[in-house]
Amino acid sequence: MMSHALRLLQIWSICARYRLDSLLPPPPSLAARLLLLAFRLHPAWWTGASRASQPDHVRRAFEELGPLFIKLGQLISTRRDLLAPALLDELAQLQENVAPFPTEQARAIVERELGTSLTERFARFDDQPLAAASIAQVHTAALLDGREVVIKVLRPGVAERIRTDMALLHRFAEFAAEHEALRVLPLQRIVADYERTLLDETDLAREADNTRRLRENFSNSPLFYVPEVHDANGSREIMIAERIEGVPITDHATFARLGIDRQRLAEKGLTIFFTQVFRDNFFHADMHPGNVYVETGNPADPRFIGLDCAIVGSLPTDDQLAIAQILLALIQRDFTQLVRVAAQAGWIPAGAPLDRIATEVRRLVEPVLTKPIDQVQLAPILAGLLDLSRVHGLLIPPQFVLLLKTLIHIEGLGRELYPALDIWSLAQPLLKQWLQDRLGPKALLKRFTEDTPILLAGLPDMPQLVFDALTQMRQAGHWQSRQLSELHGLKRQLVRGRKQDFLAWTGVLAGWTLIASAALSTPLFTAALPVGAVLIGISLGWRLLAN
Predict the structure, then answer these.
(1) 83 confidence band (pLDDT: 50, 70, 90)
(2) Fewest C-beta in 10 Å: which of 102, 251, 266, 514?
(3) How far is CA 153 from CA 144, 226, 310, 485, in A?
């Protein structure tokens, strides 16, 4: 608990020093105003005016706050519809221009992990980092055979900093789970999944494996190129890969100079996204501009280049199919089918008003289906869907959060690259083709053909399996008959017991009535007292014996 308090104080101090509250809208309520006032009570807020006036103050604050906040800044930097352009340009530097750690440390880490000196493995090692980000920094080098490579080196202590901040998020998720109004998302599972994802990013051996797999998926592809990975002794702290030649996805001046068709490039990017999610079920989940480059060797038909494959995602098969059907229903404006698929997938609780949910989804989403990407405001739609989830108790699977983060990156890149992109028209044939390949007659025949050897192998055991199943069914039938007979017996006993209770308590009541008549001091008194006592005794005795 003390470590949480110290980290919270550190976050408060940094945010106050750079006056990050200036980015917030006016507080809407008294509670929000009081919270803002408490934030400004930190002494650093009063001494940080000079830092807050500098144009790079937000970027520098995020760098000081650590890798989790740098990731947040990278995500925000792709949303040109959220903040001022100058501020977004500063945040964009978090993609690959974070303050580097000393070169001496990088050299020592590389030599330790390779088990040899740099001169024995490389013809050249460049001390000046090519790029530095939240998790690692990159140095250029040349192998002994002259091939140009890049060496990615993990930042010292970065995993521990991530665990510290994620512990705070775990505490917040536990708090949210105790309050019904905050249970829109399964935050505890989402935080656990995100922590695992970020810690996986600190394992460069895993990133190397992800890169090899993605490269294999897009081997000889005209859409997407993934660099070759070289051996690094299976190290988790360094990764050696082919050095590529290309320009960042945000380099519009080069696109204009070379005559690159930005519309075609944007359409290729969306095609790559759907191909990764549906064909391969293995998608790059960190597609911010610092990780996406473009080849310029063939301006008429350029390819994307994918870097930094540390964060990847995949979906369960059933969810993958449900998402494809939901997106297709969305494109076709069939909101009733959309809600029906979501209910069948288990995302809508039983008994929820499906017609009302379909109407509300239509109200939220239909206005944007005819708009180009530059006119689509994703934030209000997501806020509306989260509110809908809260009201109707919808269940949002945690694995969709990573997919949603990827979609936000892709949508932001598309908005930046070609604002008039019609994502719906482009997505419809891709989804239809995937569903046809998955559920069409050819797919069913292929599945049957693949399963036939397994079925044939099990034929010799079929008679015994059928006999065992019938025996179990017969035994289950006998057991159910016995249980039913016992239930009927219990029912008869309960009915008989109720009748006996009624008669016994009637006798007791009559006995007490006779005894109570003693208060009347009538001639009947001498007879009423013993008769009443005997009647009570007989009634209670008979009821006890009846049991």
Answers:
(1) low
(2) 102
(3) 20, 19, 13, 73
Name which residue leads in pLDDT, 65 or 462: 65
Output the six-digit token pair for 436: 């046809």
302 alpha-carbon distance from chain centroid: 32
Q: What is the pTM of this model?
A: 0.66
Residue 220 — φ and ψ, nearest 5°? 60, 25
Write the single-letter amino acid at 422.
D
CA proximity to 411, closest of 375, 373, 448: 373
Output the pLDDT for position 184: 56
CA–CA–CA angle 376, 71, 27 (5° rounding): 65
Give 151-198 pLDDT, tens digit per residue.
999 999 888 888 888 888 888 777 777 766 555 556 677 777 778 878
Task: Calculate mean pLDDT across residues 213-242.
Answer: 93
Pairwise CA distance, residues 203 & 309, whole Å: 11
DSSP E strands: which ranges in 50-178?
Answer: 122-125, 131-132, 136-143, 148-154
Active-site amino acid positions: 286
Edge-to-edge strand ranges of the sheet holding 292-294: 224-225, 304-306, 292-294, 247-248
Which tokens sit at 364? 């939220």
Cβ–Cβ under 8 Å, residues 292 and 248: yes
Cβ atoms 103, 53 nearer than 8 A: no
Closest CA to 87 of 27, 162, 18: 18
The 8-class DSSP code of residue 460 comes to: G
Of the candidates 242, 248, 351, 341, the residue with the CA atom closest to the CA atom of residue 302: 248
- Greatest Cα pair distance, the chain, in angstroms, is 129
